Amino acid sequence: MNLVEEIFRGARRSAQALIADGAALSYGDLIERAEKMAVRVAQTRAARVGLDCPNGIEHVIYALGIVRAGKCLVPIASELAPPERARLIRETGLGAVVDAAGNVQEAPLSGDLGFPEDALARLNPAFIRFSSGTTGRSKGIVLSHERLRERIEAANGGLSITPEDRVVWVLPMAHHFAVSLMLYLAKGACTVLVRSHLAEDVLGSARAHGGTVLYGAPFHHALLAAEASGRPWPGLRLAVSTAAALPSATAQGFDNRFGVPLSQGLGVIEVGLPLLNLRAAREKPGSVGRALPGYAVRLREGELHLRGPGMLDAYLSPWRTAAEICPEGWFATGDLGRVDAEGDVFIDGRAHSVINVAGLKCFPEEVEAVLGEVPGVAQARVLGRPHPKVGAVPVAQLVPVDPRCPPSVADIALRCRERLARYKVPVEFAFVESLPLTASGKLRR
Fold first, then answer.
1. Is the domain of 369 the same as that of 327?
2. Hey, which bits of 31-156 come out as E strands?
3. Global pTM?
4. CB 34 within 8 A of CB 25
């Protein structure tokens, strides 16, 4: 089956699908333009096609066209530094890339793939997304057409998206397209694309186009909570916060400002949207709620495990199937959690070291690898520092080779900016005499 083909078959062509920059695109027009892109993409022999395109109507058209053509979509986030982009193309074995102008550019195929081509093809893959900057430590998550369809239906058990909804879009499409936007299209809703993150622009677009649903990160909600015009948002029925922990002050401020509580959810790229706080959003804003229908939750030594529909099909490189990743169907999230007496789930932190920066994941090991290449740096440790607006920011501790003559902080920052996406660049570099180590000699975080 092809999920995009199913979405097109069930669409009401006269209904509005997308609104951006004041212009509306109907489902009929969207389908026509996506089908034309599919014809062009089908001409390449590539099994996997990258999409290097910023947020906008074109991103939606090209993404749908790639999947409609029977290719596996691999989004290339715009914030990736050139080495990260090259690594993604190489490790996924991309045969072609669609750029912002809709050009289909052939890409040289890697001769040494870290996954079995035949086994991947048998999964009927629709989408591969990496959890970070695509290092050897991060994993490409493979989702088939069948799992995506399951995930869409399961998530809508909580979101209840209908053709009457107008969803205000503020998230990066390269990170959130496959489930969120495809869900809205599958349910016949209209998505209002807002290019600006300024609260007055988001609110203005929402009011102008009758926005009913907001799905964003705490960063966006904090800006809206502080919007000073006093203008109401009368049509808002559901506001969902995901991608990072929701600060209580942001939740309270948003509720005070618009009279709608923020429903915190737990979105996991390997799983979908298994948890959403619909029942006690106002009373317990710090909770991610309860499992949506079809999902189950358990704690093992404090770590949250999940099971349900739409689980990932495989990790790409190194190759691991769902059966290997999820014993008896359970996925270990890496989140430390707890469940209160009423059954609501709370996330207390990460079992591992990932830093969430405005909803984007930064792996310290990746940044430390770049810092370790700087002449004069003997050792590096990267930690997350809490930030009131973006959740956390990376900071670096460095042990210089020669404490009397440490390397220039300006040179270190420049090296990071050249090699890493902007959100991964530490906001502070501090020189220290030594770093704490475990008994086995590993960095203690």
1. no
2. 48-51, 72-75, 96-98, 104-106, 125-130, 140-144
3. 0.84
4. no
